[in-house]
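Subject: Sanity check before I submit

Could someone independently write out the structure tokens for this chain? I want to compare against mine line by line before I put it in a report. The sequence has 237 residues.
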Amino acid sequence: MTEFLFRADAYLASTPATVTAVNAEGGIGLDRTNFYATSGGQPGDTGRLVRADGSAIVIAATVHPDGDKTAIVHVPAVGQAVLQIGETVTAEIDWEQRLKLMRMHTALHLLSVALPYPVTGGSIGAEKGRLDFDMPEVPADLAAIEAQLNAWVGAGLPVADSWITDAEMAANPGMIKTMKVKPPTGQGRVRLVKIGEIDLQPCGGTHVRNTREIGPLKLGKIEKKGAINRRVSLLFG
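---
Independent answer below. Compare away.
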């Protein structure tokens, strides 16, 4: 198992780590990592693993292998050197990219409050994100919704996490807003993300500590994707 350092500190840009595995494709396992792996609509981190001699292995993607949420594989870019098991490296994420993803991920939580409909899907990007809702009609006053989002951002609401057991999660299914993306269970506990007093939901992604860090937001296109399904885009202002 890999220790997921980003869960305790999403702002950890670099950390020492030890190589524990190298698979046939060159994918690298570490004993601990600050790299988030693709899941829940959030892309995996990119960055590099710096060796003791100062040379670096460029990491092009980070994934969970074969759906195993307890492990993370760091996928090198083409043509990189092969690391050795037991080798010590410094794991450095692309911080600018990570921060944008943290801001957008937190912003999408706010969007799920502003539009209180079941969420059927979502995607988090560095410049734009979106949520899909079971929403029969588009709200009439979109300007008011955008204003509410920016009011929450400007209020500087604290963003914090806590943990409950899998059993507690199963006993409180109403916490789950996403109908198709289920919270990461099976490890005995589930992480909850709370924004001020307006939102509490299970989530394994990375977030900013305060909504003011998100910056101004604006609603993008709203597309019809089915009889009652609407895709709502959100952009940085």
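---
OP: Matches mine. For the report I'm noting this point. The chain has two domains: 3-93, 97-236.
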